[in-house]
Amino acid sequence: MATSETRLAGRILAAPSILLLLIWMIVPLALTVYFSLLHYNLLDGYAQSSFTGVNNFYYFIKDPAFLTSIWNTFVLVGSVLVITVLGGIGMGLLLDQDIWGQGPARIMVIAPFFVMATVSALIWKNLFMNPISGLFAWVSTSFGFTPIDWFTDYPMVAIIIIVAWQWLPFAALIFMTALQSLDGEQKDAAQMDGAPPISYFAYIVLPHLARPITVVILIESIFLLGIFAEIFVTTGGGPGLATTNLPFLVYREALLKYDVGGAAAGGLIAVVIANIVSIFLTRLVGKNLES
Amino acid sequence: MGKIVLKDIRKTFGDVVVIPGVNLTIEDGQFVVFVGPSGCGKSTLLRLIAGLEDQTGGHIAIDDIDVTDAPPAKRGLSMVFQSYALYPHMSVRSNIAFGLKMAGMPKDEIAKKVDHAAKMLNLGDYIDRRPGQLSGGQRQRVAIGRAIVREPKAFLFDEPLSNLDAALRVQMRQEITKLHQDLKTTMIYVTHDQVEALTMADKIVVLNRGNIEQVGSPLELYESPRNLFVAKFIGSPTMNTFSGPEAQRRGAATIGIRPEHMIVSRTDGDWKGTVSIAEHLGSDTFLYLDVPGVGPITVRADGEAGFHAGDTVYVSPVSARMHRFDESGMAFK
Q: Number of A:B CB contacts under 8 A?
């Protein structure tokens, strides 16, 4: 059969799914753009809504909570990335060692990744960080210290700990598999060259991990920009605005203030920011993936 | 200097005995080839000398200094690996310089040595490229360059040519031989290819299941193999061996005769057979014969002899070149 006919047939056959995907993406986006231009409060109903132009964007950005939430988002994402990448490399190195009970150890390390976000947040909130009945409180009082009230005094640190705990296994898993693919003869060659362990790590292992590190940063930041459940379950964005990130701010606009227009505008701003971050990251990753 | 002495070297992995006990002396400046079928322990033996594996028992001495427990870098040896094992994210220059840098040598001295090695191996054109951008032969050269700059007491080669194509293998074989003539440094070379062993070695060590079957120059091994294993392993095509009435007639359990030590004739000879396969190589023709009462025989005939499958031929072994073995497979002296 002629190739042009084959190609046409392929296009026709692929068209329905492409069309469906397009609708799937375009309709919510178009509706969000439309709502973002309306003065539309759920308490008044859609019938009472009116066109206000870019007022929603203006008020969302002018809201002091906006800058705080952006700052919080970056603090959260950045800290978790640093902890998971550094910790993940360390755990990957440990798991790569030939030790007794390697199999069970690996499964146990990966386990937190399978716990639902809400469940793990509740475990941390009630079993570990609770100032009266939590494990940390018990440890502190056993040594005669005053227990720390994590969610009141260090709410952001607490959230970072919880999220990092969830994502550390993912990073460790990726780095462990990357380490396993390191050529054994390269290790021998480095030994013959007399590289001490630290130089071996710095000159051979770390460059080998450059790609997995960029991949982990890329994937994690996409997910971490949208962290919501952990905050909702533990601090509810507080105290004050201490743990309100961008997704949580949008949620507040829509479901606590019933301001659909404001929430839609906030959502669009979040999309723009996420895109900026992802373009920046793919550039960075692309450079690393090329060579 | 580079004299290496192995004394009662043993290596076991759990219950598996890889090397039951090896004694070997390698003199300074020798080109020694460890050869044997795969799984015979030749690579393990090399890694033991390098210090990349820990011996279960025995001692290793380099230049009369006991290095049994010394780490690889302290033994003053360089190794070229089968997969080349170049560092993929470093340029050719950094790859070669890495060992010197780890040894804490000043920068200008490193640069001088790297340039010298690069000139010696003609690496100049791609000194700033990365290993991924090089062909197999070029990578092999870089790996050799990395070994040379450290000015080792001995070079260790672990099947370095097995990933190259046939033409390049011949070329690199000659380059390594040339390198040995120039540097006059001890070299230990591991291969399963007896052609490499015969062409390169001063001294061949034939290994089988971790045991040394015979040590000798290529010609010694060819002319007077100590046992059946060496007889059949060295030489291509393989030596013909017969046990049975033909052997008993000559007072041995097994007799062996190489394909090139038989006279082929169309009219008369000791054994009469039919050609089942004729391989024409141009210079030679290898004939695979079925000889009733003796068995299958391989013989070398002239390239122009014009034998074909189905022909009847007569072959006569040259009795002076006949090898005789007793029941345990050892050669009669």
A: 70
